[in-house]
Design goal:
By secondary structure, this protein is an alpha+beta fold. It has five domains: about 15-75, no CATH class; about 90-240, no CATH class; about 255-340, Beta Barrel (OB fold (Dihydrolipoamide Acetyltransferase, E2P)); about 345-460; about 615-725. It contains 22 helices and 24 strands. A hairpin with a 7-residue loop joins strand 1 and strand 2 (about 25). Helix 11 (about 440-460) packs antiparallel against helix 13 and helix 15 (about 525-565) packs across helix 17 (about 595-610). It is elongated and about 105 Å long.
Length: about 725
């Protein structure tokens, strides 16, 4: 083969999908027979040597071989990638973080945030998954640590979080210490399944055995502990020691519910996943109802009884009902309830309502317009009292699902009474996967963006070719036939993404343009289309270079400030400034900030040394005890040493930095009258009858008369004499 280009030898098995900073991992199987399945799962082939993998961020290309292992190769071999780990386990920290986040969401938790590079840790050492608004934490310890380091980290995390649970990686030896502490330990690992990696959780007990199970089979207890099936059901094994909460409260159990023992009212959709729907229902107390995803949506106007249900109490204080299905019943005293259970006609009416609302919103999108709630009610032939806010939410969620990549939120086209987003729009976003408690500014930004996306998407599907003179009888193709053409669907998708990319470029939204460019590269076919995409690629490259230069300038300014002011800053101020510099340095290539990284390393070591020194509160506390000890020594008419003070006080005085010893003695004598000898004169150098070496500096810092070096001994002897004479 002619040497057209140098072969890339940096063969890797894992990458990230979408963009260089993505946390979506992909695993390329080594067997050529699995290659086609992998490509079907990732048709866009947007693979990168991700920064969260410790990689260079450049594009990767999957390579298929029959005579050797399939692998990824860097598209460009111009730069040498410094990525250390490249095997099939090199992206396990991303698989674990995403799997734990999805599992917590299925457990009904909110405010979930995986972190792959927590403070003071490097990538692939630790994975933190915060939830419950950051008050609780799951920590995955992947790198090896000593028992002391683990105990210090555990104490620090428990001081800042209301809940903490540890997972130990395959190479971690800390599980044995965790077993000693609580009677069991949780391990975590990944194994290859087809073209992916599956996360497994292991339960380790004192006998050293580990029982592995899928993460999806685990349960989150009300007190925040992760419980595996072994912990829940094993009766013969040694159970973990009960916590204080368990000693005070009875264990949670599932209670069977017969169909006639309970009725459900006012069902309102509270959330959904791919496999389940969650409802808020009234059962004398507020409860959450979980139904399989194949069941029809419940109507808040009807009354239901659960079938095959169990009842538990969750840590959110709600009764949790999990049912196989529900059946409609007649409610004798329910206000405003129908006198007959919902029939097939009623369900058909609900489907017709959804269809009517969807068509109205799609027509509005094609006209590039907006619609108010009253107009939609008329289109659906519904009275005002039939559409409460909860009913609106229920219907619109049926319209928005299933959620597909690039699909706009049609609910954004509904105007509220004040001309802004409809009152239920925030709830629609949350149920579709947006984060909870979005600010008004963020809701408005999403609303405006989704309006533009809806207009662009449906405008692209309305352009139909006019009939030619040779075929006057041919009718324009319907939308159904139009959507059946792959070429037209591709062109429509290309136009939508191109419009979005232009809008994002005008708004200078670099990240969004970069993401859209990846999609456009896969859709562009003709030379004209590819040239248009290349213009966006060039713009993204120029913006990235400009941002890189700006980041380097900011980093240079921060390190210059560190070098000029660092010695005069308080430790907390120094840490904040150093953290800003480190964060910027991480986003830059090593060769772009060699001098700055060297300065950051030097200041980081300096901060570590400073952190080991006592704070001002420690200095004052030491000074109080030293003052009492020195007054006692004066009454006994004798001297003392730093070592003796350390033994008497129980504080590490002898090992203090000389500057800290001076600070302690200055505080000791700060209130000593000027006509009295300083108490610090009672400290001698070791066991010799000489003043300690810091005595002259203490006098200077107290603004006292500081004798010349040759006169220091006589000055010190006079101070001792006055102490021993009681003056």
């Amino acid at each position: 083969m002619p040497p057209l280009e140098e072969e890339d030898t940096r063969k890797v098995q894992t990458a990230v999908s979408g963009h260089a900073h993505s946390d979506v991992p992909v695993f390329l199987p080594t067997d050529a027979d699995d290659y086609d399945e992998f490509i079907c799962l990732h048709p866009q082939r947007a693979f990168y040597c991700g920064t969260l993998l410790g990689g260079c961020g450049n594009r990767l290309s999957p390579k298929q071989y029959r005579d050797r292992k399939c692998h990824f190769a860097h598209v460009s071999a111009a730069e040498r990638c410094q990525r250390a780990e490249r095997d099939e386990a090199s992206a396990d920290h991303l698989y674990i973080g995403r799997a734990l986040a999805a599992w917590l969401k299925n457990q009904g938790q909110r405010g979930i945030q995986p972190m792959y590079k927590p403070k003071m840790h490097e990538v692939r050492e630790v994975v933190d998954v915060l939830y419950s608004g950051g008050s609780r934490l799951l920590r995955v310890q992947l790198a090896r640590r000593s028992k002391r380091e683990w105990e210090e980290a555990d104490a620090e995390l428990r001081a800042r979080r209301s809940g903490l649970d540890w997972f130990m990686g395959p190479d971690s030896l800390l599980a044995n210490w965790q077993v000693d502490r609580q009677g069991y330990a949780l391990r975590i690992q990944c194994r290859s399944v087809g073209a992916g990696r599956e996360v497994e959780v292991g339960t380790q007990f004192p006998d050293g055995s580990v029982e592995w199970t899928r993460l999806t089979e685990c349960t989150l207890a009300p007190d925040g502990r992760v419980l595996t099936p072994r912990l829940l059901h094993a009766k013969d094994d040694t159970p973990p020691p009960p916590s204080e909460t368990e000693q005070q409260e009875p264990p949670q159990v599932a209670l069977p519910i017969t169909p006639d023992s309970i009725t459900l009212h006012d069902a309102a959709l509270a959330g959904a996943t791919e496999t389940e729907h969650f409802y808020e229902v009234s059962v004398r107390v507020t409860a959450r109802l979980t139904l399989p995803s194949w069941t029809s949506f419940l109507d808040s106007r009807w009354t239901y009884q659960p079938i095959g249900a169990t009842l538990t109490v969750g840590d959110d204080g709600l009764w949790h009902i999990a049912a196989d299905s529900v059946r409609p019943v007649e409610a004798e005293h329910a206000p405003d309830a129908p006198t007959e259970p919902p029939s097939t006609d009623a369900r058909s009416h609900n489907e017709e309502t959804v269809t009517a609302l969807r068509e109205a919103l799609e027509d509005t999108a094609r006209d590039c317009g907006m619609v108010n709630m009253a107009t939609l009610r008329k289109r659906a032939l519904l009275s005002e009292d039939e559409l409460t806010i909860g009913r609106w939410l229920n219907l619109l969620l049926q319209i928005e699902r299933p959620r597909l990549p690039g699909k706009p939120v049609l609910s954004a086209l509904i105007k509220g009474p004040d001309g802004g987003p409809a009152p239920f729009f925030r709830d629609v976003l949350e149920h579709l996967g947006w984060e909870r408690n979005l600010s008004d500014t963020n809701v408005l930004a999403v609303w405006n963006r989704e309006i533009r996306r809806a207009h662009a998407a449906y405008r692209a599907t309305t352009s139909t070719p006019a009939p030619t003179p040779q075929e006057p009888e041919r009718r324009p193709p319907s939308r159904t036939r139009l959507s059946d053409s792959p070429a037209l669907r591709r062109r429509a998708a290309y136009d939508v993404f191109m419009d979005l990319a232009r809008e994002a470029q005008r708004a200078n939204d670099f990240t969004y343009v970069e993401q859209l460019t990846v999609d456009l590269e896969a859709l562009a076919v003709s030379t004209t289309e590819q040239q248009a995409v290349h213009e966006f690629t060039d713009w993204v490259t120029d913006q990235a270079a400009e941002k890189l230069y700006q980041d380097w300038e900011r980093l240079a300014a921060l390190t210059d400030q560190l070098n000029r002011e660092g010695d005069d800053l308080h430790l907390d101020q120094l840490r904040r400034l150093l953290h800003r510099a480190e964060k910027l340095a991480q986003s830059l290539a090593p060769e772009l900030a060699t001098d700055e990284r060297r300065d950051i390393t030097r200041w980081r070591e300096h901060v570590v040394r400073l952190a080991k020194r006592p704070t001002l509160s420690d200095i004052c506390r030491y000074a109080t005890t030293v003052r009492l000890a020195l007054r006692w020594a004066a009454r006994e008419r004798r001297t003392t040493t730093w070592s003796e003070l350390t033994q008497r006080i129980g504080a590490p005085l002898a090992g203090l930095h000389p500057d800290d010893k001076v600070s302690v003695l200055v505080e000791v004598d700060r209130e000593t009258p000027e006509d009295n000898p300083p108490l610090s004169a009672l400290i001698t150098a070791h066991d010799t009858h000489r003043p300690h070496p810091l005595y002259r500096q203490v006098l200077f810092n107290l603004d006292r008369l500081t004798p010349a070096p040759e006169a220091l001994y006589m000055h010190w002897r006079m101070a001792l004499r006055r102490h021993f004479e009681g003056r």
